[in-house]
Write a structure and sequence with these properties.
Helix content is about 30%, strand content about 25%. It has 13 helices and 21 strands. Strand 4 and strand 5 form a beta hairpin.
């Protein structure tokens, strides 16, 4: 079973920081270089200086963005900018947001969860991880000795018992209430009553947890724990480094929204669109939707498509949109014969293996996969980047279903990177967990 417990979180002192929206950010891995600079300029105490610091010319092993993050964290605590909770707490966290033409509210709770390896236990991943981000997050954890942002996890809640209980815990005025720069309303309630917390712990006792976002940070926390215990054999008992901070959300929560992460492709070797189109037609029914279409038109066609494994491809040099419908199931037998057979039912898996790998010749084993493939949420951004010539092709997908996430995770398999885009992203800086 997953083990959860309250903790004394570090939070921005609202007597010092009057505007919470000026000091928080989205997760580091969705922040562009321009966005990083913007957050630096918004406020001198913005969490960006801790979680996603700048490289500066002249940096060394002893002086760098990681050591600067630790100095900022220490100084902000001393100056009262960050203040530790006076008692262990669990935090109820709401995000209200607009999706399409509807407002949704996604509610979860923030707690510590005991770390356990992915190959056993009750915590399940669903996506592949890459060594670069894990190395970066490990250096940051080593320097700051803190979880600066939460892992995002999901749990089954068939009868909505936990969600209903969270609603009874969040009836008073929230302690934190602000709208971030994406228009999402963020609210936080601080729950310290032991009896209330114990009831939640009991309700969660038999539930597995499925990681939605934060796979790299979870594996980093595992590596940090193992490293610290190995380096200091005297460490024993239940320690802060045995836990990681998580936001836990019910799989039944009506505000749980998964968006597709569309793929942009560049640096295709010997790029020849006619050759690519010919190869696609061997296994896909290819239909020209139109040229110069508006985004709403082609996404409507895609989302209303009844057939499985349908994609839209945008070709910048022609300003043309094509619908691709898998027509040759035997292709999947070949592509998935020896590698990731569980991907044959996933649109993202078919796109990566049958099109990006087999037809375009780009492989996930390439050391610099990011030099070829970029994932974006916004369709207009994807079209713009291809039109500008920065990328050659764009492939648009429909969202992965939550049932697919659970099925893949329970089988202890993983999806291709960025198969899911859970929206909205959790805010970094609303609560910090010190590992000291």
């Amino acid at each position: 079973m997953a083990i959860i417990k309250p903790f004394q979180g570090l939070r921005y002192n609202q007597e010092v920081i009057s505007d919470m929206s000026s000091v928080v950010t989205p997760p580091y891995d969705v922040i562009s270089p321009d966005g990083q600079e913007r957050y630096y300029q918004i406020h001198p105490n913005n969490i960006i200086r801790l979680d996603f610091g700048k490289d500066i010319p002249g940096d060394t092993e002893k002086t760098n963005k990681y050591t600067r993050a630790a100095e900022f964290l220490s100084n902000w605590r001393k100056q009262g900018i960050l203040k530790q909770e006076d008692a262990p707490a669990i935090y109820i966290y709401d995000q209200e947001f607009l999706s399409g033409n509807r407002w949704f509210s996604r509610r979860g709770f923030i707690a510590l969860v005991k770390l356990e390896p992915f190959d056993k236990g009750y915590i399940y991943p669903h996506e592949q991880t890459l060594p670069g981000p894990k190395a970066d997050r490990l250096k940051l954890t080593q320097s700051c000795q803190a979880n600066l942002s939460s892992i995002f996890a999901l749990f089954p809640d068939g009868n909505n018992e936990v969600d209903s209980y969270l609603s009874t815990m969040a009836v008073s005025k929230p302690e934190v209430d602000f709208t971030d720069d994406t228009g999402v309303k963020n609210k936080l309630w601080v729950i310290k009553e032991k009896q209330t917390i114990d009831r939640l712990v009991t309700l969660m006792k038999e539930k597995p947890l499925f990681i939605a976002d934060g796979h790299h940070r979870y594996e980093t926390s595992l590596a940090y724990k193992e490293q610290m215990r190995k380096e200091n054999g005297r460490l024993s008992g239940d320690l802060p480094l045995d836990y990681v901070m998580m936001v836990c959300v019910s799989m039944n929560n009506p505000g749980l929204q998964i968006l597709p992460a569309h793929r942009l492709i560049r640096n295709i070797n010997d790029y020849n669109f006619d050759r690519i189109l010919k190869s696609l037609k061997e296994s896909f029914t290819v239909e020209l939707i139109g040229k110069g279409c508006c985004v709403e038109e082609f996404m409507s066609r895609l989302n209303n498509e009844a057939e499985n494994h349908t994609f839209v491809m945008y070709v910048g040099q022609e300003d043309a949109y094509y619908k691709l419908l898998l027509s040759n199931e035997k292709l999947l037998d070949t592509v998935f014969a020896n590698n990731h057979p569980e991907w044959r039912h996933l649109d993202a898996g078919i796109l990566h293996s049958a099109i990006i790998h087999k037809i375009l010749g780009i492989h996930s084993t390439d050391a610099a996969i990011k030099e070829y493939v970029k994932c974006v949420k916004e369709e207009t951004e994807a079209v713009s980047l291809v039109k500008s010539g920065q990328y050659q092709l764009a492939f648009f997908l429909r969202p992965t279903r939550i049932e697919q996430v659970r099925e893949i995770a329970m089988a202890r398999k993983v999806m291709p990177p960025k198969s899911t885009y859970f929206y909205p992203k959790l805010i970094t800086g609303i609560v910090i967990n010190s590992l000291n």
